[in-house]
């Protein structure tokens, strides 16, 4: 009985193993390669799949999602013979599981080596300055070459990004000095422009102020002259309207004599001859009130009797 039990147990185990090998569950976004006696038979897609146990075998399980692979820095020589280290990141996706399994031994390693060689070809035709400022151009050129080469491997390269471009240390120091000098230059230019603009605005303000001041003074002088002219015109019209005679003029002149004689510098003043005639008439009119009217025939002291037009007298000095 024991051998029969042992055989039954072995059969049960074999059936269980066969069931496990027969039923294959493939996760979503994955694929599996089935071989029969070492030859490709079919590709299993996501879901429940049944295979022939002990005859069909699963060769490879491939993830169909987009993958991200960073590559280590690679030294590349530019057109001006400078060595730069470039870090790259590749975004790829397997579109054909069979081609990715049988067309290339290791598609990750193949993509890395292809990326390095393509970078050297592209950067070799650029100088350092263009390399640092043409990342989009390098990415597009690199993606085009990789996508064309990896198409037959069942792989689609979606994106290629340059993580960093590191020039030599000496070049970095020179670039920093150049950028510092450019910033200082721009700062000096902006300062000079500010000073120039400030001086221009100050000069414009002074010009406008001088113009307004001159216009104000001119208007003030015009108004003053107009006022004086109006005053003279009013006095002249008043004199003509009042029909002033020589007696009134002589009286006004006598009132103005103290003002004419004011000041130490007034050594000489002129008396018009017409004033003498007016004073004679005035003295005749005021003879009854002047105690000196009977003396000297009523003439004004200091008046010359000759017919000259003017008489000059010196004012005695004042201590």
Summary of the model, kept short:
The chain is of the alpha+beta class and about 325 residues long. It is built from eight helices and ten strands.
Largest sheet strand order:
3-2-5
H/E topology pattern: HEEEEEEEHHHHEHHEHE
Q: How confident is the prediction overall: mean pLDDT?
A: 78
Helix content: 40-55%
- Rg to the nearest angstrom? 61 Å
Notable traits:
319 residues, alpha+beta, 3-stranded antiparallel beta sheet, 8 helices, 23% strand
Description:
The chain is of the alpha+beta class and 319 residues long. Helix content is 53%, strand content 23%. A 3-stranded antiparallel β-sheet has the order 3-2-5. The longest helix is centred in the middle third of the chain and has 74 residues, at 169-242. It is rod-shaped, with a radius of gyration of 61 Å. The termini are far apart. Residues 288-319 have low confidence and may be disordered.
Ordered list of secondary-structure elements with their pairings:
Blueprint: H1 2-22, E1 23-26, E2 30-36, E3 39-44, E4 47-50, E5 56-63, E6 67-77, E7 83-94, H2 97-102, H3 107-123, H4 128-133, H5 135-150, E8 155-166, H6 169-242, H7 246-261, E9 268-272, H8 273-285, E10 310-314
